[in-house]
Amino acid sequence: MAAARDQLLQTTCELLDLQGYYATGLNEIIRASGSPKGSLYYYFPGGKEELTEEALEHVGRIVLGRIETHLRAVGPPSDAIGGFIRLVAENVEASGYKAGGPITTVALETAATSERLRCCCERIYAAWHDAFRRKLAEGGVRPERAAELATLTLAALEGGILLCRTQRSRRPLDQVAGALQTLIAYLSTGAAAARQPAHRRKREQGEQRAKSE
Amino acid sequence: MAAARDQLLQTTCELLDLQGYYATGLNEIIRASGSPKGSLYYYFPGGKEELTEEALEHVGRIVLGRIETHLRAVGPPSDAIGGFIRLVAENVEASGYKAGGPITTVALETAATSERLRCCCERIYAAWHDAFRRKLAEGGVRPERAAELATLTLAALEGGILLCRTQRSRRPLDQVAGALQTLIAYLSTGAAAARQPAHRRKREQGEQRAKSE
DNA sequence: GATAATATATAGACCAGTTGGTATAATAGC
DNA sequence: GCTATTATACCAACTGGTCTATATATTATC
């Protein structure tokens, strides 16, 4: 039982990621999920807004899990965060540059429209931010700097996804990963560590012939 | 004559910035602009898509002008770019955190939906990117690094706007400005310049008591 | 310089299709 | 028999878009 509920949530997550809030119709959701409208309003009496909120929270938790897992696995914050951003780049590329930022579009669309959804997105971003912040602090970055750097990471990640989708290329996120990695290495272990980051030499060979703008 | 055309474009820019593409109806645009539907389809036979494209190009040029003016006025790239981001933060704050990224929402909404609008956004972002890239290169950043840093700047700027709007606070953009300024100073004039950037000391006093997540 | 002819532009009624949402009836599982 | 769930029919409001009638300039003709 309640399998229809899960289906509804799953489908909603995918469509929101692909099209955003206003372009995704309730009828489209029920068509894609198989469950009829009766079930939708049975499980989500609050209608589209409530369904969206639960879908965002669901996908927000999943992404938080991925962030934490990845950051725990890799050692120094610079490599860990750079690696995570490249992982996101891979996902965006795999979707044909049609998806990959499951919160972003909805967050922008509803920030001025629905206080409920705005707060929901704010909570999710705060949780992601905190995961980055903790990793940075544990890796030797001064606490105030860690918060600042976590914000830069989150902003550049979301902005990088936007650029990748508009350019149909993973290049922006790769560049973001590279630049952030340099900065974090510099700020966590002192100036010496940033002089020649390990990942750059082999990466730049394969990418340098692309257009420069 | 053609005053109605300008009105239409102006109104469309504002509504797109506020609500995005799909939430902004043609009827809403004509209501807000005063011009009737007949005029809309007279000036923009291509309908909503064409009107949107011209509106985006219009606002894209305006923003490009602001970027270039600001970057030309301030000397070192680190200060110039940091300052510009703080300028954007001011605008977002002044709108009550309801607007400030006139391209972003539409870019995300239409990246997978309208090739025409996707290309339009791609062109605009390319022009902005190039303005940052040139400034960085002129300021002493190695050419390959300049392209990378310009991407980080653009991504963090757009992502920062997103975070400010969801949090109803200019803090994210201020943090982005601070972190970027440090990084650019470090990469443009060598390691020594980043050790104690001038803008930090006085800025941090007034902001440090805010919440850290 | 008055008037007719012609673009230019405005006005809004109208369209089929869709939106989010409600109602009620049928059906399953215990 | 009773609750939990599903299945539709239906709703007013709105969507982007088309169409034709009208007004307002601009230009050409006498």
Quick summary:
Two copies of one chain form a homodimer. Chain A is built from ten helices and no strands.
Rounded mean pLDDT of chain A is: 89
Helix content of chain A: over 70%
Report the major sheet of chain A. none
Q: Which regions of chain A contain 5 or more consecutive residues with pLDDT less than 50?
A: 191-213
Kindly report the oligomeric state of this protein.
Answer: homodimer
User: What percentage of amino acids of chain A are in beta strands?
Assistant: under 5%
Extended strand count of chain A: 0
| Continuous helix count of chain A | 10
The end-to-end span of chain A amounts to 53 Å
**SS-derived structural category of chain A:** mainly alpha
| Backbone CA Rg of chain A | 19 Å
Greatest chain-chain interface? A-B, 64 and 64 residues
Element order, helices and strands of chain A?
Answer: HHHHHHHHHH
Assign an overall shape of chain A. elongated
Notable characteristics:
homodimer; 213 residues; mainly alpha; 0% strand; elongated; DNA-binding
